Amino acid sequence: MCFRFKSKIIAISSVVEGPTAKAYAIEICKKFSNERIKGIFVRSRKVFAPVEEIVGRKFVKSDSIGKNILFFFDCHIVIRVHLMMYGVIHVYKADEPLLKPMDRVRLMLIGDSRKIVIYNAPIVEIGLRDQVLGRLKTELGPDPLSDEWDEERVYENITKFREEKIGIVLLNQSVIAGIGNILRNEILFRVGVNPERKVGDLSPEEIHKIIYYAKELSRQYLELKIQGKRIKDILRVYNRFSSICEICGHPIKFYRQKPINRKTFVCENCQR
Question: Do the Cβ atoms of 114 and 36 come closer than 8 Å?
Fold first, then answer.
C-alpha cells in the first residue's frame, strides 16, 4: 500500500494492522488537513447519513481506532474505512488523473487543492459521528496506540476466553483493537508463549507480558511506518521460513493455526 502525492510514493505495509492504520491517518492529516470538500464520490452500501452535508465542509483530521481509519469534518458526520487486505489510499493533486480505473474507487474526497482516493476497500461507512464512534468503542477492545489504552480492561478481556488458544484470542478485535497476524506472532515469541496454549493455562505474569508487548511492539511498528521504513527490523519470527531461532538456534516452525488458518511461526524450544 502507498500514498502518492506529487509523484512520490510513500510505502506502507500491505497488511493493515493497527499501526498501519494509524500511519495512514497521520499521513492523511499532513496532506489533507483544512481542505474544504468540493465534491464526494462513494460506492458503498453503508451510507447512513446524508453525503451531501459533507460538501462545503472542512476536513478536520484523520485518526484510527484499531484497524479502522476515520475521517472527521467540521460537522456531525464521520467516514470510516477498513482497508483489510486489498484497500489502497492515494492522495493526489486535485487536477491529477487517477492511477487506477474508476470502477475500483470506493471513496473520493475532492478538496480545493488535493483529493483522497480509496481503491478496493471492502468497508466504507458514512454515518453520524457519535453513533459510529460509540459503536466502535463498544465492539472493540482497547487500542494500544490510543490515549485510552487500559491494561486492566485488556487483562479482563483476555481472561474471559480461558478455553481458547491465546494465538486465536489475540486476533479477536474485541480483546485488543489493532492486533493482526504479524503482531500476534511477534508478541508471543517475545513472551515465550506457544500460540496453542489455552488462556486458562497462562500465568498472570505471562498475560501481563503479552499486554506489555502488545503496546510496545505496536509503538515500534508505528514509528517505523512514520519513518518510511520497513518493519523487518522488529520481525524475529514472522515470515522466517526455514530460519533458526536467534535465541536458541532451534528451527522456526511454520504452520497454519486451526481453526483460523492463519500463518503461525513458533520456536517450540523457546515458546512453551
Answer: no
Just give the CATH number of 151-266: 1.10.8.50
**pTM of the predicted model, to two decimals?**
0.92
Pull the grid cell for residue 231.
Answer: 518493519
On whether the CB atoms of residues 179 and 22 are closer than 8 A, the answer is no
Using one digit for the tens of pLDDT, what is the confidence trace for 167-195?
Answer: 999 999 999 999 999 999 999 999 999 99
d(CA 227, CA 232): 13
Q: Given a cut of 80, is residue 126 above it in pLDDT?
A: yes
What torsion, rounded to 10 degrees, do the Cα atoms 65, 66, 69, 71 define? Answer: 0
DSSP character string of 65-100: ETTEEEEEESSSEEEEEE-TTT-EEEEEETTPPPSS
Among 240, 225, 168, 195, residue whose Cα is nearest residue 3: 225
Q: Which fold has domain 2-139?
A: N-terminal domain of MutM-like DNA repair proteins (3.20.190)
Domains in the chain: boundaries: 2-139, 151-266
